[in-house]
Amino acid sequence: MLKYTIRRLLGMIPMLILISIVVFTLAKLMPGDSLSGEIDPLNTNPEYIAEMREKLGYNEPLPVQYFDWITGFLQGDFGKSTRFKVPVADVIIEKIPNTLFLGVMSLLITYILAFLMGMYSGRKPYTIGDNAIAGVNYIMLAIPSFVAAVFAIYFFSFHLNWFPFGGSVDILVEEGTLDYWFSRLHHVLLPALVLGAMSTASYTQFLRNDIIENSRKDFVRTARAKGTPLKKIYNVHILRNSIIPLVTFLGFDFAALIGGAIITETIFTYPGIGQLFLDSVTSRDYPTLMALTMLLSFLTLAGNLIADILYGIVDPRIRLD
Fold first, then answer.
1. How many whole angstroms separate alpha carbon 153 and alpha carbon 148?
2. What's the 3-state SS for the chain?
3. 249 with 304: CB under 8 angstroms?
4. Which sequence spans correspond to the domains of the chain?
5. What angle do CA 197, 260, 267 make, to 5 degrees?
6. Rounded distance between C-alpha atoms, residue 57 and residue 72, angstroms
7. How many CA atoms lie within 13 A of 297 on its CB side?
8. Closest to 272 (Cα-Cα) out of 116, 96, 124, 93
9. Which residues contact 309 (CB under 8 A, 6 or more apart)?
10. Is pLDDT of 9 > 70?
11. What do you get for the CA distance between the two ends of the chain, in Å?
12. By the 8 A CB rule, do 118 and 156 touch?
């Protein structure tokens, strides 16, 4: 396991180098540059722009610019945000806790709903309840997340007034208090429900199908022949084998949820990485955009590695050599 992990980590290095080249090239191919994204009217003087481009090295050849950028990136210097006028690392550190909180809550909702519906459908297939759950799943697969987010805001925020429609915390509460954390939970629940519920359908069907398939195998017949209670057969023998695909998805699910949160955070005006990413695109804040793209790429590669390791842990038949 250790050798496999080290080998995979070393294999991520050339992949990240290739991704960094693609990210840098795409940023340079986009119209304008970081200085074009500055909105401050005092900084629109052509002489100032030309001076800053020379100072920041934008007039250097592209290979030199890439080497300077990737060298600073490896040292933890992601550049300076042209929109916020502060280091990019500070901007990301400020926003990432909200996205992590949203991602964790979404994962909890996804797996709780998937287990409840998947277990029921797997134990009682082809019944009215199973067909109803399948219908709900197909609807969730068909509806885009941004459409669901708009309807959720319309009904639960504007009509029922159950949840706030934007922000991450009430500005009137004092930070660190119990009311503060309740307010954060209250603000994150609706976007987490949208993001988590829309990801539930595929997991429910995976679990349902695996439970049905495993219930027909020889070890289940043997357990029934020995008089093992049906509840124990489903909850111990069948479920243990059926959750293997779901556990392996956990690794890259978190990275996928962070990427999927881009639209959700923007619609809910939730101040996280997703909203920061889109704001960086619209304001041409290329240093922030490049750093976020590299971060999401790294999370995706790390998620795939975690998924492979978890697969070897939950299924002893799999050998990671």
1. 9
2. CHHHHHHHHHHHHHHHHHHHHHHHHHHHHCCCCHHHHCCCHHHCCHHHHHHHHHHHCCCCCHHHHHHHHHHHHHCCCCCECCCCCCEHHHHHHHHHHHHHHHHHHHHHHHHHHHHHHHHHHHHCCCCHHHHHHHHHHHHHHHCCHHHHHHHHHHHHHHHCCCCCCCCCCCCCCCCCCHHHHHHHHHHHHHHHHHHHHCCHHHHHHHHHHHHHHHCCCHHHHHHHHCCCCHHHHHHHHHHHHHCHHHHHHHHHHHHHHHHHHHHHHHHCCCCCHHHHHHHHHHCCCHHHHHHHHHHHHHHHHHHHHHHHHHHHHHCCCCCCC
3. no
4. 2-74, 96-314
5. 85
6. 13
7. 18
8. 96
9. 1, 4, 5, 251, 320
10. yes
11. 7
12. no
CB 84 within 8 Å of CB 280: no
Q: Are 33 and 59 in contact (CB under 8 A)?
A: no
Distance, CA of 232 to CA of 265 (rounded, Å): 42
Residues in the chain: 321
- Residue corresponding to tokens 């706030």: 164
Structure tokens at 138: 């197909």
CB-facing half-sphere around the CA of 205: CA atoms within 13 A:
12
pLDDT at residue 39, as a whole number: 46
Confidence of residue 103 (pLDDT cuts 50, 70, 90): confident
Plot region of 83 (φ>0 → left; ψ -120 to 50 → alpha; else → beta): alpha
Question: Which CATH architecture is the domain 96-314 placed in?
Answer: Orthogonal Bundle (1.10)
| Residue found by looking up tokens 């500070």 in the block | 90
The model's pLDDT over 161-205, given as tens digits with 9 standing for 90+, comes to 888 887 878 877 887 788 888 888 888 898 888 888 877 887 888
Global pTM value: 0.78
Sequence-separated (6 or more) residues with CB below 8 Å from residue 212: 122, 125
The structure tokens listed for 11 are 């294999």
Nearest to residue 188, comparing CAs of 171, 164, 172? Answer: 164
CA dihedral 156, 159, 160, 165 (to 10 degrees): 40
